[in-house]
Specification:
- By secondary structure, the protein is an all-alpha fold.
- It has helices at residues 2-5, 12-38, 41-45, 51-98, 105-122, 127-155, 161-180, 192-216.
- It has two domains: 1-13 and 25-124, no CATH class; 126-217, no CATH class.
Length: 217
């Protein structure tokens, strides 16, 4: 949606990079707040609460009535607007792929209604489990995108390390998740030590393959 709203390509860097940095800062603030509130990662993991409940608890206990308002804004209103953007982005992506004009309302509904039906079906699943799949698929997509961007930089004869190194790190994170996460989250539920050894090995192997392939080209 951001790409479609920009009037000039030169705005891409401050918009996308700025959004990424801002989201990272917000994520680190909430991670630090949650761990401080529950006395560390162990207390946070054993709380058994969903992220929305944790945010509500922290806001109300630390900030009082004002915190409750912030919790409503952050946990309810913001995700709703994000959901609206996600649906629109998916509709436009599918329409572009199918070369289906979206100027008329009828054509928009033709693409949107099947998406809403699938979304309604997905809401019948446990949201906390579904969210884990959303999270890891998001990180996997980010890893693939970074590798693709690094390949593009090689093609343009520019320094690829600015993307290939983060891609390598994110690849190791994704592999480790699939190994240590429980079966209900799509993982193998194996020990942490095996996970990180395997993850680092896979990440290094992918980096070597990337360098060999790009040098041949």
């Amino acid at each position: 949606m951001m790409a479609r709203c920009m009037t000039n390509e030169k705005y891409a860097r401050p918009c996308f990079y700025g959004a990424m940095i801002a989201e990272g800062i917000v994520a680190m603030i909430w991670a630090a707040a949650a761990m401080a509130y529950f006395g560390g990662p162990e207390g946070l993991n054993s709380s058994g609460m969903t992220p929305a409940v944790i945010v509500d608890k922290i806001c109300n206990s630390w900030l009082g009535q004002l915190g409750g308002i912030i919790a409503i804004l952050g946990v309810v209103i913001c995700p709703i607007t994000s959901g609206d953007t996600a649906f629109r982005s998916l509709r436009l992506t599918l329409a572009d792929a199918l070369k289906f004009n979206q100027k008329s309302i009828r054509n928009r509904l033709f693409v949107a209604i099947p998406i809403f039906i699938v979304a309604f079906f997905l809401n019948s699943f446990d949201f906390s489990t579904l969210w884990k799949y959303v999270g890891i698929s998001n990180q996997t997509l980010a890893s693939i995108t970074l590798w693709a961007g690094a390949a593009y930089l090689v093609k343009m004869k520019k320094c690829h390390w600015i993307l290939s190194l983060p891609a390598m790190f994110l690849t190791s994170v994704c592999v480790a998740y699939f190994i240590v996460s429980p079966h209900s989250s799509g993982g193998l539920n194996l020990p942490y030590s095996l996970a990180w050894q395997t993850a680092v090995g896979v990440a290094i192997a992918v980096m070597i393959l990337f360098i060999v392939k790009t040098r041949k080209r």
